[in-house]
Amino acid sequence: MTVKKLESHEIDQALNQLNSSASPSWTIEDDKFTKTFKFKNFKQAFGFMTMCAMQAEQDDHHPEWFNVYNKVVVQLTTHEASGVSQKDVDLAQKMDAFAQCF
Amino acid sequence: MTVKKLESHEIDQALNQLNSSASPSWTIEDDKFTKTFKFKNFKQAFGFMTMCAMQAEQDDHHPEWFNVYNKVVVQLTTHEASGVSQKDVDLAQKMDAFAQCF
């Protein structure tokens, strides 16, 4: 199944939906959904990453992410779509939900 | 206990020792020990990160790292020493050992 790149207005719509509750917000940077998650400490940050990693593996859709201590900078894109797709919206929603566990 | 920043010749010595067996090599970039680890897939890359994370937490010395799929880019520095310290040499050695598990 081909994964479709989201159009500009679909990305705006997705960002509005993602950012309606959570803070800080998802943004688009380098054509990727981007968000910086901050936790209390490394243990929580890596706990969050572990939840995301297991979900990502299950969905076969993986984040690009940078971690230093309590901070996790996430970027989401879909290589086969050459841009952001619904897969990234779905993963972003799950990440927000996981972050709320801490 | 104060953590001492390594002198230039100590860093060279540490890099020689770290790179005597492993490939690819550790280098110094932005005053940080830097290495890119590549694995077969995401599951292995994150398995490696998990081993490192537990060690880092135990030693209370954490990496800066970026992951995308099978690739893990690691940078090691010691904030309280404002540079590379023996803690980074030790963590680098452990990471090399963990990487060999995959």
Your description of this structure?
Chains A, B: It catalyses: (4aS,6R)-4a-hydroxy-L-erythro-5,6,7,8-tetrahydrobiopterin = (6R)-L-erythro-6,7-dihydrobiopterin + H2O. Chains A, B: GO terms for molecular function: 4-alpha-hydroxytetrahydrobiopterin dehydratase activity. By secondary structure, the first copy, chain A, is an alpha+beta fold. Chain A has a domain at 40-102: Gyrase A, domain 2. The first copy, chain A, contains three helices and four strands, in the order αββαββα. Chain A has helices at 8-18, 42-59, 86-99; strands at residues 27-29, 32-38, 64-68, 71-76. Chain A has a four-stranded antiparallel sheet, covered by helices on one side. The longest helix of chain A has 18 residues, at 42-59. The mean pLDDT of chain A is 94. The A-B interface holds A 42-43, 46, 49-50, 53, 56-57, 62-69 and B 42-43, 46, 49-50, 53, 56-57, 62-69.
Q: SSE layout and pairings?
A:
The structure is a homodimer of 102-residue chains.
Chain A: H1 8-18, E1 27-29, E2 32-38, H2 42-59, E3 64-68, E4 71-76, H3 86-99
Antiparallel strand pairs in A: 1-2, 2-4, 3-4
EC number (chains A, B): 4.2.1.96
InterPro entries (chains A, B): PCD_sf, Pterin_deHydtase
Family (chains A, B): Belongs to the pterin-4-alpha-carbinolamine dehydratase family.
